[in-house]
């Protein structure tokens, strides 16, 4: 059997963090603003729902993606508990043994000589490691967006990405979200003050300010 793609354990860390932030969501929070300009928390959850479905489908080798939009609210919004279950299913899907195909490193994550299957995304072949790391980045950052949007958290430090997760995603973020190519996914890169931790650095690279809660 061939191994799962490099980066799956990083995805598992992202899912663990985001499941913790989703556990704090209440119905009263759905209309609250998020760090995503013009989106309320309900919009963000709808986008996260769509992304989890797409990345889980990608584990089987093919997925057709459509641009994310608050218009996704035209369908019922998944509950936080449903999203927590979907996030767990995402990791299980990518931990299954993969078919044979080439693999390359993304942001320093890769294993020389290991082969895993390719993924067809919107009709284009994509290295599965890139898909897994994109999923990890999306899940982690949107988990942080959720943490910054809800009114009450069981632990205030949930508004910061765990250090090991932020460090693990830093290299992938440089490749997957370069400063000169945001294509509407992230805001402009922000300046980072001296002494900033790994969470602040990663979020600033993606155009987000650490720790604040939108009002």
UniProtKB/TrEMBL annotation:
It comes from the Bacteria. Residues 11-147 form the Mycothiol-dependent maleylpyruvate isomerase metal-binding domain. This is Mycothiol-dependent maleylpyruvate isomerase metal-binding domain-containing protein. Signal peptide: none annotated. InterPro entries: DinB/YfiT-like, MDMPI_metal-binding.
